[in-house]
Amino acid sequence: MRLALALTASLSILASAAHAQSAYDAVDPFIGTGGEGHTFPGAVVPFGMVQLSPDTDILPFKQSYARAAGYRFGDPTILGFSHTHFSGAGHSDLGDILLTPVSGEAKLEPGEADKPGSGYRSRYSHDTEVAQPGYYAVTLSDSRVHAELTAGLRTGLHRYTFQKGDRAQVLIDLRSSIYNYPGKVLWSRLRVAPDGTVTGYRETRGWAPGRKLYFAIRFDKPLVGQAFHNREADVPYKGFAQPGRTPEDRAQIQGRALVGVFDFGQLDGPLTVKVALSSVSEDGAIANLASDEPGFDFDAQRGRAKAAWETALSAIDIEAPAPMKKTLYTALYHTLLAPSVFADADGRYRGPDDQVHAGQLDGRPFTFHSTFSLWDTFRAEHPLLTLVQPADYTNDVVNSLIASQRQSPYGILPVWQFHGQETWTMIGYHAVPVIADAWMKGIRGYDGKAALDAMVKSATYAPYGGLGDYMKLGYVPIDKEPEAASKTVEYAYDDWTIAKVAADLGQGEIAKTFERRASYWRNSFDLKTGFLRARKSDGAYREPFDPTAINYGSDYTEGNAWQYSWFAPQDLGGVVKALGGDAATVRKLDAMFDFDNSKIDYSHAEDIAGLIGQYIHGNEPSHHVAYLYDYAGAPWRTQARLTQIVNSQYKPTPDGLSGNDDLGQMSAWLMFTALGFYPVTPASNEYAIGRPFVERAALNLPNGKRFTVRAAGLSEAAPYVGKVTLNGKPLTRAYLRHDEIVAGGELVFTMSATPNKTWATKPADRPASMTPYR
């Protein structure tokens, strides 16, 4: 009996400690660095321009998909520390300005991971790694250096502690990049000023063409020597390990394969290195050096980074068991990395036209942001940011999108943009719903007419993605444009959001035009098979048809008919009717989740991860699907599916994400879902209700109000919603309105072991749809 009481007391203490753990301490930046998460563990502040992190391996001549963030948890060596990274992208690039500390003689090539001492890379142990928001540390065992990193908005600080008696040197490799291939570095420069400031730039042709980035570096110890090397032979650059020319001892060098070595001799204490970036110029980078930490106080900057994260993470107070709390706060952390700042401290930035612009739009100052993974992030990432970030942030994002449209050579909004440059990756014009969602929520620190003009121009640019045929035929024809079925329905949703904004602005004719286009999803929906299908110019559906087939460039984008047949978020009542009503829709949803994949091989498709039948949680087209039972009068089935997804797709480990985090979208899905609701249709100002996964969570809203979610009786044995109250009154509908959240209040779920099959089942209780449910 005493043992049982002692054990109960110990468990109670542990539970109390878990609840008392701060949001900052709950974050684990290693989550997602293994498996297919593609996150990085390094130092960054919220939306920082500098995202300073270790690079473990870069494979020359390959698009290093598995190392799209530069770091992979299972790799045995670290090359060094570069200053730009994507968090969770499905494509690799960046890894700019690689620095690495070396002791003794500096080898100029990275060497091979399985041959210690063959290059400047070093082995390390996870036991020596520390990763916290705004801070990273590791001991490089071959280099005999303890490296620490922290960051500000536009600067990164390195602190290197060398072994006593070792010769301290720092190597910079301007060849090194994530997604490395022959000729990626078009040109670069490296020079040292008389005061010891190192500056330079490089222009790269990678995922984005002709990307320019400038940098400035200062050390807190005097240089005793430096050597510049051009590792390019007298033939076109073909990557690492080319015959080298003799080292240059002058103060400047230019070329396509530059390596610099900075010598500090033997040091009595740590060496601190400060690096600033600029998209504008080397002078801009020099000015940015003083924009965060004016000197070299590493600990002070680490403290400021921690404070910035404590403020950002305090947007949500979470009470949950320790594993869920860690998973959720890390998810929130990952949602606060992009879109990131890409403007100098004076507001200037380099835009899509490769010109330098002031941070002004229509007389309004703004901070230019980039890294827009819009096909992913319009769904939940951007809607979440409207709740957890001040309105000024979303206004900066919208102004950045509008400015990019004006500066684009094509006159359209970004598709997948980073560092101001367009990649043309993925489909749709999904900057449109990001702007529309902000506008409909009353976040309006930009010109509404200019926003609508940018949206309409993007939606009527005929050369883009089959839009000309879409406007003529009412669908994108597959014999003229690949992935036509997906493009048709994604355009139709985007058009619906344009109609919403146009109507709000009193632009009736524009609203009428785009509301008509919003119904075009029907033109590719085959009532006979119950699937979305690609059609040819003559109107016939393409044959043969296999709803499970996934091939790049086929009828669908990173998915198949099972996922895309549900993509009409603006008209899910219409989808229910097209499928034959509530019961038929529920059967179709169940068939999707319960599908037997045992005889299907999807190994050729990198982004197809996290399969539950034909539901693919590791990629975005499926993200709203579990909530669609709400639209067919069976919300208890949504609750069951969400339990299945959360339990199988997320965990607090390096391989804890089932697919690419995609600049925060996977994490934003979890954050909303854990709170008990999800934005199935951004710009509708409604959230479909699911079930909560936290005992209690409070949104500390930007307007100063507080919206609390409580789950009474939450346990693994009680995964269903018995009843719901909002501010003490019964809530009998399956959706929550945005104005109800921002007004503050309390949403209480009473959990149950058995499903309540009468709650929120009536057509009047379902989220809004273009087509009535009856």
UniProtKB/TrEMBL annotation:
Record flagged with keyword Cell membrane: no
Pfam families: Glyco_hydro_92, Glyco_hydro_92N
Keyword terms of this UniProt record: Glycosidase, Hydrolase, Signal
Gene3D superfamilies: 2.70.98.10, alpha-1,2-mannosidase (1.20.1050.60), alpha-1,2-mannosidases domains (1.20.1610.10), GH92 mannosidase domain (3.30.2080.10)
Signal sequence coordinates: 1-20
Record has Metal-binding as a keyword: no
Recorded superkingdom: Bacteria
Record-annotated Glycosyl hydrolase family domain positions: 285-752
Record-listed E.C. numbers: 3.2.1.-
Domain Glycosyl hydrolase family 92 N-terminal residues, every copy: 27-278
GO molecular function: hydrolase activity, acting on glycosyl bonds
PANTHER family listed in its UniProt record: PEPTIDE N-GLYCANASE PNGASE -RELATED (PTHR12143), SECRETED PROTEIN (PTHR12143:SF39)
Protein name in the entry: GH92 family glycosyl hydrolase
Organism of this sequence: Caulobacter segnis
